[in-house]
Each structure stands twice: as structure tokens, then as C-alpha cells.
Structure to design on (289 residues):
């Protein structure tokens, strides 16, 4: 549901957020629903500001009860430094707002009830988003750190596995709560959301990687220089295993060895990508050469 457009960026409400607002309204807590909406909006606005300052275009932001999901026009996921800064902006903004409200309450500038709820709302949204689960901010920070060492695809796989475990834990806690008589439907919704989002990240990560690899020549022309990394592989290694090791912001050459560890061929990153497109991701290096 589209609600507002700020500097060309569309902000829309997720159906989950609408459900929460309706529940709050039914319980005659509409004022708290509006505070929750405002906190989530400012959280995402912080991401937008930092992304824009780092020349990352944003097409759309979908607001959720615990933050939101931004659709970037550039491949932010493959620039770890910028992704870390952008992801941290939301939780840090929540912390700043919470501290600001504490100061305001100290001088009686706001109602105590509203002020305390505002502080709680910021702390819950900020801390929840730091969980290392995709597509939350913590999951993006975790993946960005791992991308530097493992490569984007492998780091995404690790983050997705962790996200699914966390979703399972949250789901189990919700079921235990139901058994103890403390049922919280939001926990089940959150567990479902994290699990489904992690599955989506898994299916889209390979396409993100391919988009980036095809744009790398343009980046080289722009920047003038990129690091080159050499990978040593056996001839029975599959293309998908090699692509998972590719790292952002550098080119790769692949040296292929036979069982006697003699060099049989050296391929460029482009050769590997073309081989994948022509022969498939499960093609071995021996078949490719």
C-alpha cells in the first residue's frame, strides 16, 4: 500500500504493518500505533539518508512494524563498507531518538506515558534489527563482514542458514509461549517473515552476483584499477563452487590443475561466467576447457 513519496522514493506499508495498526486500533491504542509507525518511518529514513550520501539510489521502502525493507537501485550488497554504514544507520538513529526522549522527559517536555512507550518502541525496533538475520540490519552487517573473507555468495549462504535457525528459534518460543498461556501472534508472524525473507534472499543472491559481475568492466573503466585475485582449483571443481568464492570489487583469474597438480589452463572471470551461461552452473572445469 503506497502512502508517500519523498525525493522520488516511494514509501509503502506492508500488510503486516496494516494488521498491527488494526489490532492497535481495535484495542483503542491508535496513538501508540501512530508512534510505532513514526519510529519505523524514521528508522528507514536514516537508511535512505546514509545510502543517498554514498551515492546509492533507492527505488522503494516497504515499512514493517519492526523497521522496513529498502529496494536499492544499485548493488549495495556487493559493497560491504557502504552496506555496513547503511545498515547501522537505522539502529543508531533509534538509539539517538531514545536518548533524546530520556532528556525530554527529564525536563517534562512530553507526557511520561507516551515518552516511555516511544523509548521502548525505539529500543525494541533498534535491537530487533540488530539480530543477525536477513533481511534485518544485523543480517546485512553480518553478511557484509563475511563477504570480505568468503565472497558474496558464500557469505549470503551462511547468513541465510543463520536466519533460518533464528526463525526456527523464534517460532519455537512462540509455541512454548502458547503452551504456557502467553501466546504472542507477533512472534509467529516475525518467525514466518524471517524464514520466507531468507528463502527469497537465497534465490535472488545468485542473480545479484551475476548482475554485479557483468557490470565489473564498467567499474574498472570508471575507477581505473581493481585488485586481481587468483583462485587455484582442481579440474573436477564445479562452476558454482568457484563463483561462490568471487569477491566484490576485484577481478579473478582461475588456475586449473589436474590430479598431478600440473597447470592445464588459466581462465578469466569472464570465461567462467560465459561457461556458466552456456553450459550451466553444475559444469566442471574439465568440461569447460
Amino acid at each position: 500500500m503506497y502512502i508517500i513519496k519523498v525525493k522520488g522514493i516511494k514509501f509503502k506499508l506492508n500488510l503486516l504493518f496494516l494488521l498491527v495498526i488494526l489490532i492497535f486500533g481495535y484495542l483503542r491504542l491508535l496513538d501508540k500505533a501512530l508512534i510505532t509507525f513514526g519510529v519505523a518511518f524514521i528508522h528507514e529514513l536514516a537508511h535512505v539518508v546514509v545510502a543517498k550520501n554514498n551515492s546509492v539510489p533507492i527505488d522503494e521502502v516497504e515499512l514493517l512494524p519492526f523497521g522496513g525493507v529498502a529496494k536499492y537501485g544499485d548493488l549495495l550488497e556487493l559493497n560491504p563498507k557502504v552496506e555496513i554504514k547503511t545498515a547501522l544507520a537505522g539502529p543508531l538513529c533509534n538509539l539517538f531518538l531514545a536518548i533524546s526522549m530520556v532528556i525530554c522527559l527529564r525536563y517534562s517536555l512530553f507526557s511520561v506515558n507516551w515518552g516511555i512507550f516511544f523509548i521502548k518502541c525505539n529500543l525494541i525496533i533498534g535491537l530487533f534489527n540488530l539480530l543477525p538475520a536477513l533481511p534485518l540490519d544485523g543480517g546485512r552487517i553480518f553478511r557484509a563482514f563475511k563477504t570480505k573473507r568468503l565472497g558474496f555468495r558464500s557469505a549470503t549462504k551462511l547468513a541465510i542458514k543463520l536466519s533460518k535457525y533464528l526463525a526456527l528459534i523464534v517460532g519455537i518460543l512462540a509455541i512454548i509461549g502458547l503452551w504456557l498461556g502467553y501466546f504472542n501472534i507477533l512472534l509467529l508472524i516475525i518467525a514466518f517473515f524471517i524464514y520466507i525473507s531468507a528463502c527469497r534472499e537465497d534465490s535472488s543472491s545468485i542473480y545479484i552476483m551475476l548482475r554485479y559481475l557483468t557490470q565489473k568492466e564498467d567499474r574498472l573503466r570508471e575507477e581505473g584499477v581493481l585488485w586481481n585475485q587468483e583462485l587455484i582449483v582442481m579440474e573436477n571443481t564445479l562452476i558454482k563452487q568457484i563463483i561462490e568464492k568471487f569477491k566484490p570489487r576485484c577481478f579473478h583469474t582461475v588456475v586449473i590443475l589436474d590430479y598431478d597438480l600440473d597447470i592445464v589452463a588459466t581462465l578469466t572471470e569472464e570465461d567462467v561466467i560465459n561457461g556458466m551461461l552456456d553450459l550451466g552452473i553444475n559444469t566442471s572445469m574439465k568440461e569447460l576447457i
Notes: The chain has three domains: 1-130, 146-216, 226-288. The beta strands are 2-6, 9-13, 58-64, 67-72, 227-234, 250-257, 263-268.
